Amino acid sequence: MPMILVTPLSAVLDSIRAYRPSHLVTLLSPENMIETPPDIEQERHLRLGLNDIADPSLGAAPPAARHIAQLIAFGRDWDGSRPMLVHCWAGVSRSMAAAFTLLCDRAGPGSEYEIAQEMRARASHAQPNRLLVRLADQSLDRGGRMVRAVEAMGPGRLVDEGVPVELPLTISGQ
């Protein structure tokens, strides 16, 4: 089944073995960046060094427009025939925002609320990073719909670490 799989860092290797993804997106702070795992081709591994902050003035390596541009370009090169694995440290914030961005881009304008609601149904712990979502909304010219859709999700269940979550491409009309 074509899907985006969102996991915490601790589940990456097991998820690669179980799901055999063709593409991998890593969103970690620059000082915690990982090497490309076995079974993933280096050119199919996007490594985005950024911290999980929602206000760029609050720390080093905040999410930036260039990160969103790289993510969108990477997602557009993925044919969807095998899963894409997206992870951050906990599988709660940066990776959920990245998956939301990829699904919204693939589905096109008007799909934002449906995708956000399905994400919430599948991942009660999801708390997409608001800065990443805002930057993606601007990049994809969604007029605030991505931001409002994530806000409508409400707060996620507080967890130390998320669990692997399957987000089928069919939730976005694909």
Describe the structure.
This protein has 174 residues and is an alpha/beta fold. The protein has a single domain, classed as Protein tyrosine phosphatase superfamily (Protein-Tyrosine Phosphatase, Chain A). It is 37% helix and 15% strand. The chain is built from six helices and five strands; from the N terminus they run βαββαβααααβ. Strands 3-2-4-1-5 form a five-stranded mixed β-sheet, with helices on both faces. Helix 2 packs across helix 3, helix 3 (94-107) runs parallel beside helix 5 and helix 4 (112-122) runs parallel beside helix 6. The relative contact order is 0.22.
The residue fraction in helices comes out at 25-40%
Structural class: alpha/beta
Q: Can you count the beta strands?
A: 5
How many H/I helical runs? 6
Order of strands side by side in the largest beta sheet?
Answer: 3-2-4-1-5
Query: Looking at the structure, what is the overall shape?
Result: globular
| Unreliable parts | none
The whole-angstrom Rg is 14 Å
CATH class: Alpha Beta
- CATH domain topology: Protein-Tyrosine Phosphatase, Chain A
Question: What's the quaternary structure here?
Answer: single chain
Number of domains: 1
Give a short account of the largest sheet.
5 strands, mixed
Q: What is the string of SSEs from the N terminus onward?
A: EHEEHEHHHHE
| N- and C-termini, Cα separation | 12 Å
Arithmetic mean of pLDDT: 95
What do we call the CATH homologous superfamily?
Protein tyrosine phosphatase superfamily
Kindly estimate the percentage of residues that lie in beta strands according to DSSP. Answer: 5-15%
CATH architect. name: Alpha-Beta Complex
